Amino acid sequence: MPEGPEVECVKKALQKLIGEKIKNIELTEHSQKYKKYKGKNNQFKYFKGKTIKKIVRYGKYFVWEFDTDKVILNHLGMTGMWYLSNKIEIKNATHPKLFIKTMSGIIAVFNDIRNFGQLRIFNNLSEIKEYPPIKNLGIDGLALPFPTELFIRKLNEKKYANKQIANVLLEQKLVAGIGNIYKSESLHLSKIDPRKTVKELSLEEKKRLAKAISQTLQKAVKSGGSSINTYRMPSGEEGRGQLWHQVYRKQYCANCNSKIKKIVQNKRTTYFCPKCQN
DNA sequence: CCGCTGGCCTGCGAGC
DNA sequence: TGCTCGCAGGCCAGCG
C-alpha cells in the first residue's frame, strides 16, 4: 500500500516516540497465527525497558534504533500501519501485530491486514545495512535536491535498456520509494508512454522524468500521503494525496480529458493517457 | 549475476 | 441476498 511518501509521513508521526522508554512490548495473540511471528514474542520482549532513540526511513523501510545495539527493521508491506494513541482502545487496529506501550502512556500498534508487512530484529545497525534489500536501495526518491545526473547514469545501465520504463520505476535499486501510484503519476507528469523501453527514451525525457518523480513524491508528502484503500495516518486521519491524482484510477485525463488507458505490466496496473503520453 | 513465477494474506466491490 | 472472481500503494524465495 504505502509508497515512499506515505512511509515518510508515518515516520514523521512516529517521531513522537523518540526518547520514550518502553514499558511493554509484545506480539499480539493475532500475530501468532502467522508462521513468521510464531513464538517470537521473547525476542521482542528484549526491548522492554529500552528507550527509542531513532526511527529512520530507508526507501519504504523503517529502522528503529534503541539505547542498545539491536535494531528493528520494519516494512509496512501493502496494508501495514502504525496507530498511535493515548487510550487503550485503538478502533482502527483490526489486525494488530505488535503492541508497544511507553512509560509516559503512549500506545503504538502495528496493524497489518494482509500480513505482508515486516518486523525483523537485527543484532546491530551494520547488519541491517548489509541486508541486501537495504544495501541495494538506490537513490532516495525524496532526496532534495533530486540527483538527476546520478538518476540518468543509473537509468543508462545496460540491464534497464530493454525494459519498459514503468517496470523500471518500481525497481527500488534504481529509485527507492516509488510505488505503483506514483509510477503512473510520474510518467503522466513527464508525458512519457509507460510502455517505452529505457533505450527509447531521449535525454530530454529522462530529465523530465527525474523532475516529475521528485515533484510527485514531494507533493505527496505535503498532502500527507494518498489514502486510496487502507492507508491512514497514525492518528487515523486520511491523507489528501488522492485528491490531486492525475491518472491513477482515473477515467479521464486531468490534462486533456481523453479516456485513460489501464494496462498491466509485470502484473502491476498502469494508468496512462494515450494522447498526452507518447 | 539476471529474470521470471509463485507465494504470502485479507477484504472489497462487481457481476452473476 | 449470497456466492465467486478479480483485484489491491509490496516484497521475497526459489528456480533455471
Automatic annotation (TrEMBL):
Keyword Hydrolase found: yes
NCBIfam families, per database record: fpg, PRK01103.1
InterPro entries, per the entry: DNA_glyclase_Znf_dom_DNA_BS (IPR015887), FPG_cat (IPR012319), FPG_Glyclase (IPR020629), FPG_N (IPR035937), H2TH_FPG (IPR015886), Ribosomal_uS13-like_H2TH (IPR010979), Znf_DNA_glyclase/AP_lyase (IPR000214), Znf_FPG/IleRS (IPR010663)
Subunit and interaction comment: Monomer.
Formamidopyrimidine-DNA glycosylase catalytic domain location: 2-117
One Gene Ontology molecular-function label: 8-oxo-7,8-dihydroguanine DNA N-glycosylase activity
Family the entry assigns: Belongs to the FPG family.
Pfam families per record: Fapy_DNA_glyco, H2TH, zf-FPG_IleRS
GO biological process per UniProt: base-excision repair
Keyword Zinc tagged: yes
SMART domains linked: Fapy_DNA_glyco, H2TH
Assigned EC number: 3.2.2.23, 4.2.99.18
Protein name, entry field: Bifunctional DNA-formamidopyrimidine glycosylase/DNA-(Apurinic or apyrimidinic site) lyase
Reaction it catalyzes: 2'-deoxyribonucleotide-(2'-deoxyribose 5'-phosphate)-2'-deoxyribonucleotide-DNA = a 3'-end 2'-deoxyribonucleotide-(2,3-dehydro-2,3-deoxyribose 5'-phosphate)-DNA + a 5'-end 5'-phospho-2'-deoxyribonucleoside-DNA + H(+); Hydrolysis of DNA containing ring-opened 7-methylguanine residues, releasing 2,6-diamino-4-hydroxy-5-(N-methyl)formamidopyrimidine
Names of required cofactors: Zn(2+)
Coiled coil: none
FPG-type domain sequence ranges: 246-278
Keywords, ordered alphabetically: DNA damage, DNA repair, DNA-binding, Glycosidase, Hydrolase, Lyase, Metal-binding, Multifunctional enzyme, Zinc, Zinc-finger
Origin organism lineage: Archaea, Promethearchaeati, Candidatus Heimdallarchaeota, Candidatus Heimdallarchaeia (ex Rinke et al. 2021) (nom. nud.), Candidatus Heimdallarchaeales
